[in-house]
Design goal:
- This protein is α+β, with helices and mostly antiparallel strands and 209 residues long.
- It is 22% helix and 38% strand.
- It has six helices and 13 strands.
- The strands form four sheets. The chain has a four-stranded antiparallel beta sheet with strand order 1-2-3-13, with no helix packed on it. It has a four-stranded antiparallel beta sheet with strand order 4-12-11-5, with no helix packed on it.
- α4 packs antiparallel against α6.
Length: 209
């Protein structure tokens, strides 16, 4: 749960009236710890007001940290970034003849960007320096591996470009518990702050004096 001071911001201020940003990150423990600052203009011609929190994660899984200022912050348990951990993992195969690989690439790219926006790069390359550029010279092959929900979206692009597909090898996502691989926790959350994302089991905010 976000602090009340952050949740209540939209009620009285526009995005031009405040900034949120990460000021420090501690990677020294397994569970990531970071500080965030809220900077607000309470009154015209008055100094900015600063509020700061230390945020401790539990069950940290993955992160991409940016120190840029932003007005966007959220914590959610429903986001495509979580599929890597909470969804079945599979392989997507295509069959048939692709008449226009460039158009297929375009459709796949748009699909990926609509889901992940700035947070995750599109990693299916059709460039000359990869095997992807030649794979559609054949009538079948592996297109991608990953979460079933994502591969199903990619499969729609294959169909749109006249190709058949199959999704196989369904298996649960796993994580290392220190002794062995176990099924992943499906109750993970993602913390979003501008370009930053942090995936963990929970986030604990403590106000700093």
């Amino acid at each position: 749960m976000l602090p009340k001071e952050i949740i209540d911001i939209p009620e009285g201020y526009t995005e031009d009236d405040y900034n949120l940003y990460i000021t420090s990150v501690d990677y020294s423990t397994n569970d990531l710890v970071f500080d965030i600052t809220l900077e607000m203009d309470w009154f015209i011609d008055k100094e900015d007001i600063f509020k700061q929190w230390k945020v401790r994660t539990t069950g940290h899984r993955k992160n991409h940290i940016s120190f840029d200022r932003t007005a966007f912050i959220a914590i959610t348990n429903d986001h495509p970034l979580l599929w890597e951990f909470t969804d079945l993992q599979c392989e997507l195969y295509f069959s048939g003849q692709c008449k226009d690989p460039a158009m297929l690439f375009y459709h796949l790219y748009l699909t990926h960007k609509s889901l992940f926006k700035i947070y995750q790069p599109f990693n299916i390359s059709f460039g000359d320096d990869t095997n992807t550029s030649t794979r559609f010279q054949y009538t079948n092959g592996l297109l991608a591996e990953g979460p079933k929900k994502l591969l199903t979206k990619y499969a729609d692009c294959l169909k749109q470009n006249g190709l058949d597909y199959s999704i196989i090898g369904e298996r649960p996502a796993t994580c290392w518990d220190g002794k062995q691989f176990v099924n992943e926790n499906k109750n993970l959350k993602v913390f979003l702050l501008g370009d930053t994302y942090i995936i963990a089991e929970d986030f604990l905010f403590t106000a700093k004096e």
